[in-house]
Amino acid sequence: MFIFRVSSEECASNDSRSERWIENTEHTQHNTPTHHCTVCHACSLAYRLYCVEPVALQRREEKRACFLTQTQSCCSMFPMLTLLSMFYYICLRRRSRSGTRSEALGSRRAVELGQRSALPVTVEVEQYGKEVLDFSSHYGSENSMSYTMWNLAGVPNVYPSSGDFTQTAVFRTYGHWWEKCISSAIPFRRTPPSFHSQDYLELAFEEPVYPTAVEVLETYHPGAIVKILACSLNPFSQNPPADVRWEVLWAGKPNKAVTPQARQFSPSIRQISFATNLLRLEVNSSLLEYYTELDAVILRGVRERPILALYKIPVIDINDLSDSEEEISDAGGLCCRSGGENRHNLGNGYFDRLPYELIQLIVSHLPVPDLCRLAQSCKLFHKHCCDPLQYIQLSLQPYWARLTDASLSHLQSRCTLLQRLNMSWTGNRGAVTAAGFCSFMKACGASLVCLELSCCHFLTEACLEVIAQTCPCLQELNLASCDRLQPQAFNHIAKLTNLRRLVLYRTKVEQSAILSILTFCPELRHLNLGSCVMIEDYDVVASMLSARCRSLRSLDLWRCRNLSERGLAELVSGCRLLEELDLGWCSTLQSSSGCFQHLARSLPRLRKLFLTANRTVCDSDLEELAANCSALEHLDILGTRMVSSASLRKLLQSCPRLKLLDVSFCSQIDSRFVQEISGLFPNVSIKKSFTQ
């Protein structure tokens, strides 16, 4: 056992100590040390020179040569120590090269204090999701756990198995089928090409950590995840910070996995400057053949911030939208004509001689943040970028993480001609307040025709009241998944008498409010009441639709739990222009009553029909569809036990426009038959899910 003695004189400053050690080593080459062993002296020197002190390369080589000289002379006296000394020297050299500066400094302090050096131990924490806080949609019901986002909390239920399992988290849509429906909204211009997200979920974990890895267990049709974000807010904290930040850990394009088998998705993530226990996954299922299913999310991280994570990730911020004259400088940039003068600054390349309309067209291709920044470059561009004609359509959804009340305030003066506004996903956790939104609507809502507000949890009854008062021309309103709006707030929608499209998916709208809306909004063309659990009697709603909304083209009654054959009969008798009808998971409808056959005979324009999970659909129903609904494009009969292959073949022959057919869990339709008819009808995408 070697004891390394360190004298008090050796604890001086780095430079003086280094010089003194060189002098000492030069002296020991000619004189025998009298105070302590040469081996101990040399080893202590090596420890200081190669493990502790960061010095210049030349000085380090000089000390290395000195050390070797001492070791050789010492080993001639003590041969048994040769191997041990050289091994120790090699370890120290490797340690000095691999160690970080912080570890070296910590080791030096330990030596100076006469304590044994100890390296900092970083322990990686692995944790599963504790609670699902928010999501945009899910396949399941609000009153059960099957196919719901809540299944994502906790340890895996299915993985590593593959297939269609009810214990997983499933989003509402997949593929491009829903986007091509007549009930879908027209895409907004100026949406950045890098924004791919269609759905999202937010998942909280027990302990905040600095993330080192995120693993998503995908059990069926993987590949939908396009973005992973981390939040600086601790959702379980009693004192939330005033400034909530979201940072992107990973982002990619939509893709489709080679096989639908289960996988563990763990992309390489960026380091961030704060600890987090709140993650957000954004997905795009447009390229997938069927519903993607997620089983669990694992967050790995360390409790202390990594020393090397000292950089700051650049972020896009659209809050810097000030239009003050001091910030609009033409020095060194483009110049405008002033006061009727015909002179031009030749330094601008004659850009201001282009026709006004041409510059407007060029500027119209810029996304909103770039448009706002360009407005500050010079007076000419300020004029074009602040022209209200540039803001006829405005999609703020891609910038949900940065949008605040200040952003809306800066945009007010530019949006006086605003007709279509998309604020979906924005303003949550206090970023946008009800007061800020109301102020913006009062200034810019007079010409609004379309308003997308899905998943906007800042909305209150006062917000809907302001919308009803200031947007008399509104024709489209989307409040999907605004599940924190109180039931009485929906009464104000009845004042929007020009409504054509209304989406109330996963809201708390009550029966009295929806009846009032249908009474005063007879021009409705598209209505989505999917998963509206507060409506007590859908038969009454169907009867009102039949009487008041005869121009209805699409109706979504997904998981409406109490629609009976009588209500469906009234609906199809009065709304004969229906082209899309979603009756998925309406378990109270029975085929034996003849309701589906009556539906087929009453709706000759039908293009989409979802009878998902209705176990009673039979051959007679498909034969009526084949005889009366030749325009049918999408049909979902998942889960029926009474449809044969013969009736299915007849349907395919009679409906040449059919593009989507879901026969998953149809007990009489096996995979061999699906493979056979897929070859006979190559233009039809036939779905048959499996469970491994």
Sequence of strands across the biggest β-sheet: 10-11-12-13-14-15-16-17-18-19-20-21
**What's the CATH class of the domain at 124-302, please?**
Mainly Beta
Contiguous uncertain segments of 5+ residues: 1-57, 77-81, 99-121, 312-316, 320-347
Strand content: 15-25%
Kindly state the percentage of residues in helix.
25-40%
Task: Describe the protein's topology.
Blueprint: H1 14-28, H2 38-52, H3 57-77, H4 82-98, H5 101-112, E1 124-128, E2 131-135, E3 169-170, E4 199-220, E5 225-231, E6 246-251, E7 263-265, E8 276-283, E9 293-302, H6 356-363, H7 368-374, H8 379-385, E10 393-395, H9 405-411, E11 420-422, H10 434-444, E12 450-452, H11 461-470, E13 476-478, E14 501-503, H12 511-520, E15 526-528, H13 538-548, E16 554-556, H14 565-574, E17 580-582, H15 595-602, E18 608-610, H16 619-628, E19 634-636, H17 645-654, E20 660-662, H18 671-680, E21 685-687
Parallel strand pairs: 10-11, 11-12, 12-13, 13-14, 14-15, 15-16, 16-17, 17-18, 18-19, 19-20, 20-21
Antiparallel strand pairs: 1-9, 2-4, 3-9, 4-7, 4-8, 4-9, 5-6, 5-8
Architecture overview:
There is one protein chain. With 692 residues, the protein is α/β, with parallel strands linked by helices. Among the domains are: 8-112; 124-302, Galactose-binding domain-like (Jelly Rolls, Sandwich), CATH 2.60.120.260; 590-692, Ribonuclease Inhibitor (Leucine-rich repeat, LRR (right-handed beta-alpha superhelix)). Helix content is 29%, strand content 15%. The chain has 18 helices and 21 strands. The strands form two sheets. Strands 10-11-12-13-14-15-16-17-18-19-20-21 form a twelve-stranded parallel β-sheet, with no helix packed on it. Strands 1, 2, 3, 4, 5, 6, 7, 8 and 9 form a nine-stranded antiparallel β-sheet that branches. It is globular, with a radius of gyration of 35 Å. Residues 1-57, 77-81, 99-121, 312-316 and 320-347 have low confidence and may be disordered.
